[in-house]
């Protein structure tokens, strides 16, 4: 027998929570676990521009021929414009190459395989805390993982001194993974000045920066959110980027992401990218078309792009409004603790400061589901559940 000795793997801490929520029977249940956007009605909508583009695609599509290994060319070009901005020198000089990927996760896995097989890097520095899959992906390719401090529990802010102290130990050739914006799980991003300092430090020390950009447009805007990446591009000739369009295009189950490699010049970029294509060929050969073709159509059509940008601003606005209301309602329900820090955080997540025991109590006694680290998905808060949620939180504090 081959399989009878296999141990059961533990459930994924975040996806497992979704399963438990589905099975929950109490009607008052509230899901603040998995990171998906929800509108005021608690639904995860398909953006208007996506619906229009999909309808057009369906009518126009006349073949299901394979895509190339790196996917839809127009999509890859549009991705570079979102990342670098229009008319960036990198685009003009063809120093970047992009491959469509299976979501941001797929891009990260390509990055990890590429780093492991084609560079001398042995160590990757990952923020503590981080999205748990970061550690798992780099572990899967056999890299050494070191963590750098990120979150100060007392100030509910960036532990800047801890971060600098830890990253000072990162050596030339080490990979440093950075969250492009809307740090998951803390919602805390470096300030522009801090980004500038980190970019300079990276260039001086000779790190290979890897940007995980899963929430572009969810903090302050598409251009604003690229500040950190663009600060790095000014001084770091080589860099890797993972993009995800799961959240900002609402295309979660279409698995739409991109891996981008920036090199010193076009010739090196092409050479390195040929190895990226070899990696993709052995992983899944070539990607699926639908999601990427949808994104490409939106980003190439002025009206659709404008409507998408508008809807993204609406999503961002709703989350910011909910942050404000959440803090106000907690106060109104009698919370004596200061929760004002929640208003300053970016993106969907907030590190609420709730302990694992308090999170357990919320689930057991009130059918409110959150990640045990205290991370809550602010987009899961609606006018309908906010009062119940805040009353329950105050009871477990
Ligand atoms: N990186 C971060 C920080 C994330 O939060 C997520 C998704 O939650 C991803 C990457 C992966 O995104 P995708 O669903 O596109 O694979």
Automatic annotation (TrEMBL):
Superkingdom field: Bacteria
SUPFAM superfamilies given in the database record: PLP-dependent transferases (SSF53383)
InterPro entries assigned: Aminotransferase_I/II_large, Asp_trans, NHTrfase_class1_PyrdxlP-BS, PyrdxlP-dep_Trfase, PyrdxlP-dep_Trfase_major, PyrdxlP-dep_Trfase_small
Cofactor: pyridoxal 5'-phosphate
GO MF term set: identical protein binding; L-tyrosine-2-oxoglutarate transaminase activity; pyridoxal phosphate binding
Keyword terms, alphabetized: Aminotransferase, Pyridoxal phosphate, Transferase
GO biological process per UniProt: L-phenylalanine biosynthetic process from chorismate via phenylpyruvate
Record-listed E.C. numbers: 2.6.1.-
PROSITE patterns named in the record: AA_TRANSFER_CLASS_1
Top EC class for this record: transferase
Domain Aminotransferase class I/classII large: 28-393
CC terms in the record's Gene Ontology section: cytosol
UniProt cross-references to NCBIfam families, sorted A to Z: PRK09257.1 (NF006719)
Family to which the UniProt record says this protein belongs: Belongs to the class-I pyridoxal-phosphate-dependent aminotransferase family.
Assembly and interaction partners: Homodimer.
Name listed for the protein in its UniProt record: Aminotransferase
């Amino acid at each position: 027998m081959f399989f009878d000795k296999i141990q059961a793997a533990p459930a994924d801490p975040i996806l497992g929570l979704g399963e438990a929520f589905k099975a929950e029977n109490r009607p008052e249940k509230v899901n603040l676990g998995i990171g998906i956007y929800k509108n005021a009605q608690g639904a995860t909508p398909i953006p208007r521009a996506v619906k229009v583009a999909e309808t057009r695609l369906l009518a126009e599509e006349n073949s299901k021929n394979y895509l190339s290994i790196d996917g839809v060319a127009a999509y890859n070009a549009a991705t570079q414009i979102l990342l670098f901005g229009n008319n960036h020198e990198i685009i003009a000089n063809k120093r970047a190459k992009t491959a469509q990927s299976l979501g941001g996760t797929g891009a990260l896995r390509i990055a990890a395989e590429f780093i492991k097989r084609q560079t001398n890097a042995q160590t990757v520095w990952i923020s503590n805390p981080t999205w748990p899959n970061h550690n798992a992906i780099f572990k899967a390719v056999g890299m050494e993982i070191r963590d750098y401090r990120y979150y100060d529990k007392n100030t509910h802010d960036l532990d800047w001194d801890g971060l600098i102290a830890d990253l000072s130990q990162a050596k030339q050739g080490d990979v440093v993974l950075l969250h492009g914006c809307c740090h998951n799980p803390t919602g805390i991003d470096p300030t522009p000045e801090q980004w500038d300092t980190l970019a300079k430090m990276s260039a001086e020390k000779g790190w290979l920066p890897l940007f995980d950009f899963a929430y572009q447009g969810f903090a302050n805007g598409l251009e604003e959110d690229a500040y950190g990446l663009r600060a790095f591009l000014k001084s770091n000739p080589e860099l890797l980027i993972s993009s995800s369009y799961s959240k900002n295009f609402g295309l979660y189950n279409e698995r739409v992401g991109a891996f981008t490699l920036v090199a010193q010049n076009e010739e090196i970029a092409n050479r390195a990218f040929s190895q990226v294509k070899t990696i993709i060929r052995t992983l899944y050969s070539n990607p699926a078309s639908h999601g990427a073709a949808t994104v490409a159509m939106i980003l190439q059509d002025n009206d659709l792009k404008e409507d998408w940008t508008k809807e993204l601003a609406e999503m961002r606005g709703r989350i910011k409004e909910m942050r404000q209301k959440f803090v106000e309602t907690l106060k109104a329900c009698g919370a004596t603790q200061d929760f004002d820090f929640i208003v300053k955080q970016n993106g969907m997540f907030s590190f609420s400061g709730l302990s694992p025991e308090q999170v357990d109590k919320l689930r057991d006694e009130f059918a409110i589901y959150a990640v045990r680290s205290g991370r809550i998905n602010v987009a899961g808060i609606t006018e309908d559940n906010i009062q119940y949620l805040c009353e329950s939180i105050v009871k477990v504090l």
